[in-house]
Predict the structure.
Amino acid sequence: MLIDPWASSQVDYDKLVNQFGIKKFQDILNTINKPSRLMRRGVIFGHRDFEKIVPLANQKKEFAVVTGMMPSGQMHIGHKMVVDQLKWYAEKGATLSLPIADMEAYAARGISLEKAKEIAINEYLTNYIALGLDLTSDKVDVYLQSQNNLLKDLTFKISKRANFNEMKAIYGFTPSTNLAHIYAPLTQVADILIPQIPEKGGPKQVVVPVGVDQDPHLRLTRDIADKMNEEYGFITPASTYHRFITGLTGGKMSSSKPKTAIYLNDSPEEAEKKVKTAKTGGRESLAEQKELGGRPDECVIYEMLVYHLLDSDEELSKIHEECKNGTLLCGACKARTGELMKELFEDLHSKQEDAKEIAKTLF
Ligand code: TRP
Ligand code: SF4
């Protein structure tokens, strides 16, 4: 099995843990001081070397977080997960390095650098700020790949450490793959290693929180970091992997499929309405649901509560239980979840305008 970072396929998380050497996040959960909601609830399901980050986060010692965004379309509610994780790391005192992958968007999606910059500012950075991440902090470095000369120099050195056979084995590239597409992941390797160059303070622990589709890049980076260790002192970066959010129709939530996604630009009313169209784990009839109970673990509504809308673990497990024993019915459950989504969007939208002004000043 090959993971293709540029395709949108469903994944079997257990297989990934077993086949690719990704470790179960659950096994280290109890070593973490105040783990985040996504950690506690198993949304972050896997990691590589995260045990090296734990003591640093627990004691607020120096480490860096790298996670990038490819500005290729509208942000949806699933993208909020990355922001939530970054907020958690910021509280732990980490420095954040946030590449905007305009070169990747150009190479893999055919989006012009100008367009990518516009999307990055108006969509990504605006929403990152509106969702509560302080991008103006001196512990945060947001940059466009195409404007970062240190990054490009590092990419050049990195490309000395990889050959076509490896790139083919990891990504399935063929002789007809265009070279920019082959170069893009090397740029991403540089994104992940750049916090460790002398200009950025030298070698340090880095963690990369991403969706599991990005793991091929991590495998390449870890391999190259090892090869460059002797000369540059690079430490192998750690990573965490989160599950994808399910789309409203039950498959993947995808920016390019409006029926599956709640966009961060949707009005609060629209967001609420969309919640009510989501596929549930309810039964055919009311009578059947009362008798057999619902299936919260197969329910998009329940997942929204888990990922985004309910802070209290107790309330969440109460809903789980009442759904399963048939006392909670989908109508009421949807109405409540819709209301919570609306509130989230009201808050988000009240902040977007100011956020955009700040976003415009970032570069
Ligand atoms: N490839 C990532 C995406 O498709 C974006 C990205 C670029 C990234 N550089 C990165 C992610 C560094 C993690 C770390 O969204
Ligand atoms: Fe989903 Fe709620 Fe229906 Fe249970 S009651 S299946 S959690 S919508």
User: Anything to note?
Assistant: The radius of gyration is 21 Å. The mean pLDDT is 95. The first helix runs from residue 13 to 19.
